[in-house]
Protein 1
Amino acid sequence: MSNPFFKNYGPINISEILKTLDIKTGLDKNIDVNDIKDLYLAKVNDITFLHSKKYKDIAVNTKASFCITNNILKNYLPNNCIPIVVKNVLISTSLITTKFYPESIYDNFDETTLNIKKTRFKDSVKFGQNVLIGENVSIGSNCKIGHNTIIEKNVSIGNNCSIGSNSIIRNTIIKDNVKILDNCVIGKHGFGFFPDKNKNLRYPHIGIVQIDDNCEIGCGSTIDRGSMSNTVIGKNVFFDNQIHIAHNVRIGDNTIIAGQVGIAGSSQIGKNVKIGGQAGISGHLKIGDNVEIAGGSGVIKDIPKNSKVMGYPAKSIRQFLKENK
Amino acid sequence: MSNPFFKNYGPINISEILKTLDIKTGLDKNIDVNDIKDLYLAKVNDITFLHSKKYKDIAVNTKASFCITNNILKNYLPNNCIPIVVKNVLISTSLITTKFYPESIYDNFDETTLNIKKTRFKDSVKFGQNVLIGENVSIGSNCKIGHNTIIEKNVSIGNNCSIGSNSIIRNTIIKDNVKILDNCVIGKHGFGFFPDKNKNLRYPHIGIVQIDDNCEIGCGSTIDRGSMSNTVIGKNVFFDNQIHIAHNVRIGDNTIIAGQVGIAGSSQIGKNVKIGGQAGISGHLKIGDNVEIAGGSGVIKDIPKNSKVMGYPAKSIRQFLKENK
Amino acid sequence: MSNPFFKNYGPINISEILKTLDIKTGLDKNIDVNDIKDLYLAKVNDITFLHSKKYKDIAVNTKASFCITNNILKNYLPNNCIPIVVKNVLISTSLITTKFYPESIYDNFDETTLNIKKTRFKDSVKFGQNVLIGENVSIGSNCKIGHNTIIEKNVSIGNNCSIGSNSIIRNTIIKDNVKILDNCVIGKHGFGFFPDKNKNLRYPHIGIVQIDDNCEIGCGSTIDRGSMSNTVIGKNVFFDNQIHIAHNVRIGDNTIIAGQVGIAGSSQIGKNVKIGGQAGISGHLKIGDNVEIAGGSGVIKDIPKNSKVMGYPAKSIRQFLKENK
């Protein structure tokens, strides 16, 4: 919830929020709500949400004035926080987040872009043909941007970076000495929605992508921005071609990922991890530091640090090779 | 064989067809053949083909005047239909289809495109830089088309659609409220050819891609058009990034497909199916409604409706997890 | 080491080479070194390298004047060749190769490109909008190049070729009758570097990509150029969409590769091989002629000719299906 990019359309009066959620309640407060944040970050006059018992310890200390939750979980909230009881906490949270950040739902093409020749970067950046730059973009010194590349709105690029051709970037912070190769798409919303007959309900992605110093991102890769948190690629991480990184993934420093690997949403990869080609990692997993995952493996549970795994489901490489002699 | 897009270069005289197939026969008819269609759709003065006993029940009732077939299958044809006996029915059918629809074989870039600013869409569509529009394109109201995107010839786009940047579309019907994200290629011919030493023989793709209401197609995805039938994506189907859908695939409504999945030619996916990341589905399979396929699975046989499968080859998820504890 | 494209910045004096390697030695020669080549190709006044006992038989006959090697392997060198003993032969070789070929390390966008309308190809090639052509490009007769495609420097295209739209090609030799479809990236450096904390060390890629007659490369594919040798796609090889071919891979004639396959670095694929969708092949393997690899397989060892394999790790298809009934 620390997105520096999306415009907060708040404050929104609590009566309007209740109306959006179709709640007719005795609540007769006339309070302006400033923002929607998680239990930890929310302040007085913010709204938050509690959808799982896992977060009860944080809930008891929240400073939020309102909390979207259900009939059971509401009991964990402190007195300063008025529960707003709904059927489906995540769907309701999504609706309210969309009210605060309506631009975070869809990723239509950026209409604000200008040819780089018409921007302040025309002298400071080395650029190819037909390069477009959106609003709220900063670019450091000694950077190159290749032909037909589109730096959409809300992108910060550090020093000594090289962006290839035909790539598209938005809602992304890129640090120094980063190389993004050709045909990449970085910073688009993740594959997040509530399935519904006839018309799925997209939820907002107010997170960003952050790519730290000295990284290299291979051709044809896609890195989605986070939904409520950020997608983070640590320092000196190298991607081969055709990698897919889903929303909220975090990758530790010095990790190396070979071609066509996919990492599903919210998984955390440690430092110095090596992932072989075409391996897949399911969502919401923790892969420890120094882990080695053989090419083609399918990882469906957490992997402790310093392990070497292989197979589908991925297991100890020694055991896998013994079983598959 | 219901392609609304490819120009039929017929009628073609039967003598020319026989010459193309290198057949010297007693047949001394001088009949103009109008079109090539399947056994069911063919009418008087059309040519059809019969390459498998599977279709004998349809064959006996065909209205076609001619049928490309072999020495055994010809006996299923009715009196109104003159058999044209060849060694390899599919190769001969391909040759004749190519004569009727020569433009369906190769997908060279579309030379007919104009910058959208020079077309009738310049006021009705919201568009980015360098957007190109080919011949025989229609676009509904309230649509957006991103930078560098190429709508090649033979595309129909409904209302309220959003096409991303750097995408290429041809021979495709897109219904309402569809989102196509960046870097997609939709409607190109499939991976269909007859292998031959030194120079493979491509066969025609006279089918189209149809994408129904409320779909979303993720970044970097490829959807090939059908060869003799269509590739169809049902209503409210959501694709994550880097999906590949081969020719003639049909996907039912409300199906959800995660990143890097591939579906091989002519497979049929039911409604409300969920397919996890990097799963692969072989060609010519039937996946029933409400099936769940775990990420990374390799499906090599039909899956009955309401099943949950996992593994390679994909089997009952319960069995798979038991065997892989 | 037979790259026709990269400029050799030699000769370089041996004293400067030793300084680069931080070697203070009694060696007081003042010799200009012309080039860096492998043990077999190196001539008098060239430098070469020996990093493995595997190459001792070639080493004893090398004509090179200098050889980067270690304290043990140096004993295989003939009298005409002065050993330069280092800790890590490959890293040192990489450093010296970079001195001779500094442009082979990074693939920043090609600044030399011009719109094709301003080049000598404006009348001889059929081209789309916004096509860019770099330096040292040749294009044969009857070729087509689609919209937004970038033919960067050092590309030779034969006759009757069709390049799609949004593709990027450099350092590549394309023979006759080749089709490259849309959104491909061909000829970029491979995923080759020495991992190092904080900042990996890229090694040079002085090889090229060679694509022989009658090939077809599907949409969204990436083919990396070789590091010290070339990446070679034989005659009449057909790729489906979203294929990834790493550096130094060699593929024999008439091979067919289905969608989303990945082949890791330096593997050699025979002639008439068939590879099913999403299969992966590890690096440095030999796949014999006429091999069939089932879709989704993971190949981690050599496969003898005429075999059919399936599974992960790939084994005899008969055995695999028996074990997985």
Protein 2
Amino acid sequence: MEKLLIALTFACSVLALLFALFTARKVLKFSEGTDLMKKISASICKGANAYLKRQYKIVVVFFAVLFVILGVMAFLGLLTPYVPFAFITGGFFSALSGFIGMKIATSSNARTANACREGLNKGLRVAFSAGSVMGFTVVGLGLLDISIWFFLLKFAFKLPNEAITSAMLTFGMGASSMALFARVGGGIFTKAADVGADLVGKVEAGIPEDDPRNPAVIADNVGDNVGDVAGMGADLYESYVGSVISACALGVAALHSITAMALPLILAAVGVICSILGTFLVRTKEGASQKQLLGALSRGTNFSAVLIAIISFPLVYFVLGKANWTVYFAILAGLISGVLIGQSTEYFTSDSYKPTRNLAATSETGTATIIIGGLSVGMLSTLIPIVIISVCILAAYFVSGGGTSASMGLYGIALAAVGMLSTLGITLATDAYGPVADNAGGIAEMAGLESSVRERTDALDSLGNTTAATGKGFAIGSAALTALALMASYIDKIKSIDGGAAKIANLNITNPTVLIGLFIGACLPFVFAALTMNSVGRAAQSVVKEVRRQFKEIAGLMDGKAEADYASCVDLCTKSSLHEMILPTVVAVIVPIIVGLILGCTGVVGMLAGATASGFLMAVFMSNSGGAWDNAKKYIESGVHGGKGSENHKAAVVGDTVGDPFKDTSGPSINILIKLLSMVSIVFAAVIVNYSLL
Amino acid sequence: MEKLLIALTFACSVLALLFALFTARKVLKFSEGTDLMKKISASICKGANAYLKRQYKIVVVFFAVLFVILGVMAFLGLLTPYVPFAFITGGFFSALSGFIGMKIATSSNARTANACREGLNKGLRVAFSAGSVMGFTVVGLGLLDISIWFFLLKFAFKLPNEAITSAMLTFGMGASSMALFARVGGGIFTKAADVGADLVGKVEAGIPEDDPRNPAVIADNVGDNVGDVAGMGADLYESYVGSVISACALGVAALHSITAMALPLILAAVGVICSILGTFLVRTKEGASQKQLLGALSRGTNFSAVLIAIISFPLVYFVLGKANWTVYFAILAGLISGVLIGQSTEYFTSDSYKPTRNLAATSETGTATIIIGGLSVGMLSTLIPIVIISVCILAAYFVSGGGTSASMGLYGIALAAVGMLSTLGITLATDAYGPVADNAGGIAEMAGLESSVRERTDALDSLGNTTAATGKGFAIGSAALTALALMASYIDKIKSIDGGAAKIANLNITNPTVLIGLFIGACLPFVFAALTMNSVGRAAQSVVKEVRRQFKEIAGLMDGKAEADYASCVDLCTKSSLHEMILPTVVAVIVPIIVGLILGCTGVVGMLAGATASGFLMAVFMSNSGGAWDNAKKYIESGVHGGKGSENHKAAVVGDTVGDPFKDTSGPSINILIKLLSMVSIVFAAVIVNYSLL
């Protein structure tokens, strides 16, 4: 059974990677267009490479330090000896996911722009293919890492199943820390460049977006790649692997059988096949409307989702047997919830609906009212997702038999997360193609291509905003479910340690250590959001000053007679974002250890619950406020409320600028934060049991 | 013993009320100044009265409906028959506190302005005396209500102690709902008027604050009275009464003796005396600097706090005896935490410290960066208060013997809240004098008094911002502690109902109903903040349009040749704020019942914990962001970063405008929300036990 399982997982991981490779080769066959386009694309690529290279240098130091710490702990018997290595591989594969995604994205932006010269359908195919490379790389590397470790631990080190899942959980910590670095660093880079470019270029100098005269324009496009692509790749690698492993661990704990561990792996493997099939449905006819474009993408993702929903029914029945087949409904609940949260995101942030349209109208009374309006749209938008996720948790828990066995219920919650992420290959493809289209638009503008090209890339880009909303639904929903599953795994882990069971006996919510843990945990997303926003603010201010300086000092820049010094802006963004990413990540790693040492294991559980609840809310709030401001601005640009250049538009641009760090730095980072907290807690569990104060 | 206790409480309530009366008469002896000043003050007074009259009309309907519902429930045996009446008196006294405070405030604004013509010291005395009337009215009415009901239930109806505290808890629901109406309605009024006046007057038309040409100027001053005074009075009445009663209830549950119930009452009674003594120390010499003024106020509050800290030591020892005297340290922890949270608030919001100064500097790069900066200052500022309150909870729990008896620990937490609020008489006085000074400044401006008068009222007003920070520390800190005490009371209440103990047995944080309750509870402050901000936004927009209309249509208004139609703005604010206050309050009352009916008692406990944690964070975040923006603007007005009228100043004004609903509507309302949720849950406990789904 184990061999078959490893073989299946390994085979599907190879399948995903081969599909990614095949798609990448297909993309690279397209032409990059004119020399100017090649040159621009090369500058973007160069900037992104330089950033990643320097980022990895810093990350390597962090990983080396933690490797030594974990090594010492393993030497002292507080950890199994595999943990330091699992930690490293998790980080490595997460970084690799981001790196490959970024590589293909920077290689496809000019190609997409060029393809758009021939037609919308061709542009869509190039951009979507680039997204697919990223999606299937993430999925493939995730399954590869899991199957290799599974193989090693089972057959080389001959561990029992409980010990296998327990060891594998820890490579989640490597993946999570890497993801947090990538998301925070990339998020700061992209938004510092974006805010800097917008504030001085659009607002002060009054030149259009992506205008080549803007010194921050290349940095802005580099940012799309290192933040929205590399950051997202590392992020979702971590979500994917985290949800699968925690489901395996909880399955073993609930049923003490290899079959329970097998189910999440099989689901993930089958999900790869469904996703690949789905990609073939993404195509559209020439001159397709916005709606038809969206239809093409939705057809692919919906097909994959329905397929996995159908296939997993016999699958669950076959794997778990008659006694436990009802966990199927937990998987279904996860799938449906992901879609519903995405739809709620779309409702609150798309300009086809009332909230964003009303928000656009508040610009009539000035900047302050559109800021207040956007904040309240975001806060209000937390209600529906929280109800959806609550119903999902309740349903997943009870259909899986949580009423009689709590551990079965928790297994159900973890499977809901796996269900939600099972078609990640294609959902990530529809998500990752957005930044490629965005870059393509930038290149079209800078290379002075005819306006019809820009119109086509804009159509693709705007579509990307909608699919990104769906993607965010999956990312946030799965983060919450996975965090809860990890919390349950943490409790199991503590119980498995000598003397741990007594220390975690009183998890009553009125126990003051639980309660205080809850308070502190709930505070972390606020502090984390503040730190990352401050970072963006500081980095953006330095960009603003640099751009202003160039406008002032480079003679003839505004008339297009002299070229801006793009490299200095890229360099500035790189330096400040890398400098700024360290503190938030270190905080996220250290706080759970400090809380554990002071409040003990019960305090840690409280902290995890508090951070998950408030983190989910803050992530939804910040993403949706940001999305609503962004689209309210675009809605005004479409000609209502005075249109482009009006006072109302200026107010909306301020809203959009405030929303930038909300939706692309702080919000998504919080998703990772809540999982990293659990991962760190799990890794340091033995330390806490042995040395905690309370 | 009981008789002595009731007599003492009653005597101190009468003492507080007499002191308030005596102080009021003293204030009313001062002259109101010139005819113009009288006229302006009369318009403000008229507007405030008209608002309150209409507000009470709506509130009466709400109370009547709930009275009938509670009556039916009592008839069905789900409640004791006293509850509907207790509910009504709680609401009545809360409303009365606000009304009296508002009356004295509107009668003292012109008197303060006039006193400032003679000197700063005289101005301070008038304004502070007006604040004292409010402070001691709140305290006096609170103790009066408690002692009357205690007397009735004990001697007229001869209930046992457990039943007395249980019945008295329910008049907290009346006080809380009234407080929420007052805070939300008043908060919307004041900020709609303020935002409207600022946006059109200051930003668009470029006329100074409180300029008589601004049509919203009277409405703005009315707002200070109905929001900052009447709203705050009702709010703190509720905090005070809620903390005392919940401590009584938990004391009876922990020690089953009248002495445990006596302690909070005696503490409150002694606190009245300490506060009165403290007020005599508030005076300053002529020409006092800002620092000396603050010193005068601090001397009063510090003296009262130290006095009660000293006196309560023998008091606790005498009342509870050798076995339990250590709860003294819980009281001390509460007192100290209140002061520390206030200092943290001051650090983050005063322009004497780095956060606000740095925030002012972000205005250099435009509106967007000052908005991002203010949001992150607020979010970051949650960390220290959460650590303080966590340490306070832990300390209060364990010094009171929570390690061996959980109910003693919870009694300790409740006593910490009582300790924090014991000197409310004087802390509220230093808080409530702010709006009086603010109004006085407005009158000085509108009546065209010499600029030295305005300088003096400005000095008083700016001082008010600092003391308000301390006041907020107490309000937020005590709200969190009281909410936790009420949560504990709720659990006791459920256990006392037939079949309740089994329903609340599993309060483990991993129980999905607890967890989902937690998620939903944590979401409520976000939704509530959104609703109230939206309300302010909508109301402000209508004011903006009306002010713009008047500027356009009333010929000669800008040249001072024609008078603005102040009444129409007041009327508009009244109408829209009363309309807008209904939904948030109804939501706060209905949600805990719905959650209870679906998720059962364990879900309610989860909801209360989640709402307390996230409500505390949101309240601190929103208050401090708002405060920091306000003071960053004032700091710029003092001449740095370009000073008044510069682009930077304009950016700061937008920040301040966004901060207005943050700090004066949504933030403070959340304090009440978290307690109202518990109160409603307690009142409907029997319904939930009998009819819940899960």
